[in-house]
Each structure stands twice: as structure tokens, then as C-alpha cells.
Amino acid sequence: MNIKIIYNTKTHKISQKYQTLEEIRNAIQILYPQQLQNEFDLYISLHYQIEPLKIIDEACLLKIKDLYHQLKWSSIKILVKDSINPNLTNEDLSILNQSVVSQSSVQLSTFIENFQQYQEPKPEIQQKQKIIIKEIKQEQDVTQEIINQVQKQEEFLKIDYNSEEFKQFIIQQIDERLKYHGILQAQLLKPKLPEYRMQLITKDFKLSKFINEIEQFQVQITNTGDIIWRKNNVFLCGVDGYYKNEQFELLQDVNPGEIAYFICKFQMPNYEAENLKSEFQMVYYEQGKQKSFGEKLLLVFTVKKKNNQKPNLKKINEQKIKQLMENAAITKIEAIQFIEMYGEENPIDEIILAYFDQLK
Length: 360
Prior knowledge:
Blueprint: E1 2-7, E2 10-14, H1 21-31, E3 40-44, E4 53-54, H2 58-71, E5 75-82, H3 90-103, H4 108-115, H5 123-133, H6 139-153, H7 164-180, E6 198-200, E7 205-210, E8 214-223, E9 234-241, E10 247-249, E11 259-267, E12 273-286, E13 289-304, H8 318-328, H9 332-342, H10 348-357
Parallel strand pairs: 1-5, 7-13
Antiparallel strand pairs: 1-2, 3-4, 3-5, 6-8, 8-11, 9-10, 9-12, 12-13
Helix pairs in contact: 8-9, 8-10
């Protein structure tokens, strides 16, 4: 889902890699490090007849995304308010409502039904809860504790008592109290969840190559976990060093117990270097967020020049390359190419801002 942020009437599109609330806030601070070094709030408009909503936590953002998916809206526009001017102005409301008015013919009642739905539990659910809770001696204390927890969850969002999320929440709360009172043994509470696990067949290795030379080799890793590694969801990824953020795909899906094969293709740097290092680790994606697992694979390489080869004498500041890689989540080669194109003499803050601007 595309995410655009508005600050001081300026609109920026941030990378789709930033999807969680924490990632979005970090991306905004990269764009405006001086202006937003203190606290700032995020608002979103769902309907021009509803007051803009303040995004207070991850659960709130997920609820908003779910609603956007239901309405088949492809982008979210988020307004940023700093601590100096924290109040929403008419101009803010106008900017926020431009997109929702133009793309939505949905009635207000639909939003109220989808976003502020609040129902009492069905009689059969109430009866089931009573039967379970009767097994606990201190029934009133347990019930009150569950109510308190529910009220905390309702601070911003209305609870759909018929949803699977709410049912799981109730079961979890009751199980915790049963465990506390010794009625239910800890090992019986939850079944063992499937896990991503791996074992390296290809071990750490060293290379010695020429400037700009292309190197290709195969990495073998055994799937020792309980989950099938899907080709479009599990990758070997550079997590540190020169090839950070480089990703290599599986040749095919890999079942538990089978060996995964990765064809890794690198281009050597355009300058001489000794003992450059890069670490790689297995990653998978869950709800749009990258998660790593297993031990790391280390690549150490030396880059030499041929007798008739002249290295690139212009070397870009390594600190600028590293900052752009981390902020934009791109590879070192991509960072170098963009800095060379934009101009290495420019300040890094301006280079980062320019990178995100060209994505619009």
C-alpha cells in the first residue's frame, strides 16, 4: 500500500518498505530531522464528515489499512503535526479531505458500520464464557481483570465481539488466569507453533577478484524447521557490510528437511580493497515486515586491479553511502549510483530527501 505524508503543506511519498507505525515515523524523521526532532502526531481522514483520526498505535494503523483494503483504496495520506503547531487547522482539514472526497462515494453510515462497530456478545458466547469462568474460584476478580483489559483495547478502536481476534483475546486472558491459579498447566496452554529454522551447508568463505569483476556462486542451506520456504517469501539477504540489502531468491519452494539452493551473483567494487566483509542471513516476510532467522554467512573478499586496469580514483564518502543505504533500505551499489548521479558534494540530508522525492 502506498503511503504519502503531508507536513507544512508539502507532500512526500515514502518507500513501500515502510509499513509499520515505527517504520513510518522513522522515515518521516529522516525527511525532517531538524523540524521533527521532538514529538509529533499523525492524523488521517477516512471521510470528510468524520473528524480526522489520530494514529496512536500499531493496532490503530492496522485497522485503518484493513478499512482501506475493503474500500479498494491504494494509498494512505497521513498528516504530520509537530509540537510547535499541534492543532489541526482548516487548511489541514482541506488537504486531508481532498483525497477522500475525490475518491469516495461511500456514505457516512458505511464508515460508522465498518470502523465503529460495537456489538454486545451473542447469548451463546456469553453462556460459553460463564461456563469457563465458573471453573475459577475467584470469579469476580478474574472477570473484572478481563473487563479492564478489554477497556484498554477500546481506548481508541471499538471492539467487534464476533471477530476471531476478540475470541482469541478472551481465550488468552482466561488461560493466563487459569495458569496463575494452577488450574491449567503451562505446557497445555498453547500448542508448539511452527518455526523457521535452518542449517548452513555452505560455510564462510573468502574471494579474491579483480575490480568490477562479476562473481557467481551457489549457497546451500538446509530447511530444518517446520514451515515450507516459499520462493516468493523467503530470501538470503545481505544484513551487513558491502552487500547489505542484496537479496537472492530461492530456485523453488523448499519443504522441511530439504536443501535450499541460492545462486548469488555479485559485482566487485570499482576500487582496490582488502578484506572487505559482508554478512548474509535468511529472512522471511510476515504481514509486510521482514524477519530474520538462523546463523549468518560471512563473505570476505579482496579486490585487485589488473596490470592494465585503472581503478576509479573518485571515492565517495563511505559515511554518506552507509546513511543512504540504511535510510532508504537499498544496496550499496544502488546507493553509490544515486549519489554519483545526484552529486557527492551535496549534504547527506539533501541526498536522502532527493532519493525519496524521485520515487513519487
